[in-house]
Amino acid sequence: MGTDEERQHGLLACVDVHYQEHETRGALLLFADWAATASTEQRLVHLPAAAEYQPGHFYERELPVLLALLSQVDQPLVTVLIDGYVWLGSSAEKGLGAHLYEALDRRVPGMEPAVAAERVRTMHGPYRVPTLLKDVDRLSRG
């Protein structure tokens, strides 16, 4: 469950991107707190096919889609959950999460990895992947 501060200052979102031959689809689910069993709203974007994947540059494919999704949200967000890394390996090279955090001008709170892991573990769902993350994946796939 989100802290009182989180509930007073904004929503949480989870996002996912799905690639097809001729288009890229992004999906976003908004929810009120970490214990939510369902989203309160959803958003979709359809963009042209993404550029080919280049090792170490995954964020270049995903970031435009995520920013397009997040630009549709009028309410303040406190946390955005992504299916990707914040930091890449032991070199502390920026991953998708770090690039997204910077692109949003740090308008969403950063949190320690252990705190993030614990909050994801407390999310609703019978198995390892929380319900809302499964839902956003399914929505992005159409």
Strand arrangement, largest sheet?
Answer: 3-2-1-4
What is the CATH topology? archaeoglobus fulgidus dsm 4304 fold
β-strand number: 6
CATH class: Alpha Beta
The N- to C-terminal Cα distance equals: 29 Å
Share of residues in helices:
25-40%
Q: What's the architecture, going by CATH?
A: 2-Layer Sandwich
Classification by helices and strands? alpha+beta
| Number of structural units classed as domains | 1
**How many strands, what sense, and barrel or not for the largest sheet?**
4 strands, mixed
Beta-strand residue fraction? 15-25%
> How big is the Rg?
15 Å
| Mean pLDDT, all residues | 88
Q: Which overall shape is indicated by the principal axes computed on the Cα atoms?
A: globular
**Tally of individual helices:** 5
Order of helices and strands, N to C? HEEEHEEEHHH
State the low-pLDDT regions, or none.
1-8
Instruction: Please identify which CATH superfamily we are dealing with.
Output: archaeoglobus fulgidus dsm 4304 superfamily
